[in-house]
Amino acid sequence: MEHTLLTARLTRSEIISEKTKHLEFVVEELADFDFIPGQFVSVREPRGEKTITRAYSIASPPRGNNTFDLCLNRVDEGFMSNFLCDRAVGETARFHGPHGLFVLKPEVEDVVFVATGTGVAPFRSMAQRLFGRDGSGVDRHNGRKIWLVYGTRYAEDVYYQKEFEELAASEPDFHYTATLSRPSDDWKGGRGYVQEHLRQIVGERKDLHVYICGLNEMVNATRKLLVEELGWDKKRVIYERYD
Ligand SMILES: Cc1cc2nc3c(=O)[nH]c(=O)nc-3n(C[C@H](O)[C@H](O)[C@H](O)COP(=O)(O)OP(=O)(O)OC[C@H]3O[C@@H](n4cnc5c(N)ncnc54)[C@H](O)[C@@H]3O)c2cc1C
């Protein structure tokens, strides 16, 4: 199927860790770029004779205008991640979308978001939308409890930490744990892998939805814990794999 290609012009580029950038774009052809939190865009660029297409989760909520954000990790030797991270403000990239089914289910039930690395991007979009941090001020969380468990190796790689901590401080129904697999002695957050924290949050419960996003290894380990070890219905475990 031929997709309509759109032009994203970079308006802001911020380094958020050694290999990661927060990028903000405007879509030139549209007044309103609408999508559902959790969806991704497909960036397409020529490389020699070929055309390369890569998916990137939208890291912002729909704001009723033509903007969107990405959270981009440079992959060693990777083509598209470096192409995008090397864009200067004012330069463009071509993309199609939004695409994807990794979106919140309509049932009003408590949810746990589990992410590693840039897998936090769709959850930033969802959380901002649910708690009216999308410019609308409209609260859409309907009394659900929402946990975000975010895992990475080192403290420098906890993206959007301040934003999530502020959200948790002002919203009693939003709970945030950043956990490090290689913490320094002075780290005050969680320690160990995301699965250990998830296990504590769910306890004996099986009535939540768990959304998982990140690299395959973490996604598989988390699904295995819930479905095989704790006996969850696999329909309650929704995931997006980045590799
Ligand atoms: C639905 C979806 C959403 C995604 N959202 C994001 C996002 O928000 N932010 C983001 O940074 N990435 C995201 N990705 C990953 C992204 O699509 C690319 O796979 C990644 O940027 C690497 O592409 P590349 O062209 O730079 O590397 P390539 O040239 O494709 O790969 C170079 C080498 O890196 C390995 N590799 C490929 N992907 C990864 C990876 N993700 N991590 C580590 N090694 C890898 C390959 O095996 C290969 O050896 C998402 C992927 C999917 C499927």
Topology:
Blueprint: E1 6-17, E2 20-27, E3 40-47, E4 50-57, E5 67-73, H1 80-85, E6 92-99, E7 111-116, H2 121-130, E8 146-152, H3 161-170, E9 174-180, E10 190-191, H4 194-202, E11 209-214, H5 216-229, E12 237-241
Parallel strand pairs: 7-8, 7-11, 8-9, 9-10, 11-12
Antiparallel strand pairs: 1-2, 1-6, 2-5, 3-4, 3-6
This protein binds flavin-adenine dinucleotide.
Flavin-adenine dinucleotide is lined by residues 40, 54-57, 70-73, 75, 77-81, 118, 121, 240, 242-243.
Question: What report would you give on this structure?
Answer:
The chain is of the alpha/beta class and 243 residues long. The chain folds into two domains: 6-99, Translation factors (Elongation Factor Tu (Ef-tu), domain 3); 111-241, Nucleotide-binding domain of ferredoxin-NADP reductase (FNR) module (Rossmann fold). It is 20% helix and 35% strand. The protein has five helices and twelve strands. It has helices at 80-85, 121-130, 161-170, 194-202, 216-229, and strands spanning 6-17, 20-27, 40-47, 50-57, 67-73, 92-99, 111-116, 146-152, 174-180, 190-191, 209-214, 237-241. It has a six-stranded antiparallel β-sheet with strand order 4-3-6-1-2-5. Strand 8, helix 3 and strand 9 (174-180) form a beta-alpha-beta unit. Helix 4 (194-202) runs parallel beside helix 5 (216-229). It is globular. The mean pLDDT is 96. Bound molecules: flavin-adenine dinucleotide. Flavin-adenine dinucleotide is lined by residues 40, 54-57, 70-73, 75, 77-81, 118, 121, 240, 242-243.
